[in-house]
Amino acid sequence: MRIEHEYQRQGVCAHLAARDVHRARLFGKVVEEISIAVFDALVAEVMSQEPYRAARRVCWIVDGGTIHRGQRAIDRIEIYFSILQRKALTPADFASQDAVAERILGFQDHHRAVARPFESKFTRRDLQQLLQRWAIPHDQLLENAA
Predict the structure, then answer these.
(1) Which residue in 30, 81, 122, 142 is a FRET match for 108, CA 20 to 30 A apart?
(2) What is the DSSP string of 1-51?
(3) Quick one: CA torsion of 29, 103, 13, 6, rounded to 10 degrees?
(4) How far apart are CA 108 and CA 105, in angstroms?
């Protein structure tokens, strides 16, 4: 979009969300600032509900923010946020933070209604191999890369 010299930023809002890929359930909220307390509140909201409350183990994949960019990150963990950005936030031209929040939460409601589980090809064995690779000491990783 073109931005004229009269353009004024209306502030920032953040969408914090969790998605259960096996059940196509979505939890989320729009906040003015992401913090540990806000994240903890989202985790508490999810974990207070079944089947998560009674589960022996719940795995969370957490986005580290702007460092996750590009196709590999989208393929691994940012599927919902990629969809949100492409379907609801493009072009990013909003009159206010409230308008952004309204659009995000409206899309979230729509996604809850139409989302279906998807089949992940990432297996328990893949996870074990990944964890083993991460367990290699840093200096050994550098030797293997050479």
Answers:
(1) 122
(2) ----TT-------EEEEEEETTTTEEEEEEESS--HHHHHHHHHHHHTSTT
(3) -170
(4) 5
Burial of 16 (0-12, 13-18, 19+ CB in 10 A): middle
pTM: 0.46
- Please tell me the distance from the alpha carbon of residue 14 to that of residue 23, in angstroms, as a whole number: 24
Q: Is 91 helix (H, G, I), strand (E, B) or coil?
A: coil
pLDDT per position as a tens digit, 52-108 = 888 888 777 766 554 344 555 455 446 677 788 888 888 878 888 898 889 989 998
Cβ atoms of 117 and 24 within 8 Å: the answer is yes
> Residue 126 has what DSSP assignment?
H
**Preceding omega of 91 cis (within 30 degrees of 0):** yes
Distance CA 146, CA 138 (A): 13
User: For residues 1 and 93, what is the distance between their CA atoms, to the nearest angstrom?
Assistant: 8
